[in-house]
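[step 3/7] inverse_fold.run input=structure_tokens len=147
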């Protein structure tokens, strides 16, 4: 039979009165660009060799903040669906959940909506990895704004 927590020395029993409300983030204020924002729209097409990776520089935010609002990726050959992986990098570190994405985030002509808020002094890049054989053409599009 388990021992009730209030009988174990050094433990604290939390009651309903101790519960804290969940922290909320007002994403609505980031869903649409403010009047003073500057749009960012980067389209890149590169051939990625067998077993190779390419880095696509997007922006160094400097003193600004950024919102990434849309992302599209596609390949020109069917093999790109299984062999290419796209990763959004923030200061060289993979940004979850946008890590090793297959061709699934919309086309470059019609990118899918995402919402990533980026702070000041941040370098944003996209890395495309080819885990298959042969050179594949990778198309990438990232849209948003700085403010």
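[step 3/7] decode complete -> sequence:
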């Amino acid at each position: 039979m388990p021992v009730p927590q209030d009988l174990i020395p050094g433990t604290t029993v939390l009651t309903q009165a101790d519960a804290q409300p969940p922290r909320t983030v007002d994403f609505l204020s980031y869903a649409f660009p403010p009047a003073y924002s500057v749009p960012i729209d980067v389209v890149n097409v590169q051939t990625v060799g067998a077993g190779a990776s390419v880095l696509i520089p997007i922006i160094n935010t400097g003193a600004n903040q950024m919102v990434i609002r849309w992302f599209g990726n596609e390949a020109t050959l069917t093999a790109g669906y299984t062999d290419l992986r796209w990763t959004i990098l923030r200061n060289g570190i993979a940004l979850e959940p946008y890590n090793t994405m297959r061709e699934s985030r919309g086309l470059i002509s019609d990118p899918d909506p995402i919402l990533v808020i980026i702070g000041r002094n941040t370098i944003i890049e996209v890395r495309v990895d080819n885990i298959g054989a042969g050179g594949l053409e990778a198309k990438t599009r990232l849209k948003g704004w700085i403010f």
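[step 4/7] annotate
Residues 38-146 form a domain with the Jelly Rolls fold (CATH 2.60.120.510).
Strands lie at 38-48, 53-60, 66-75, 84-90, 93-94, 112-118, 123-130, 136-146.
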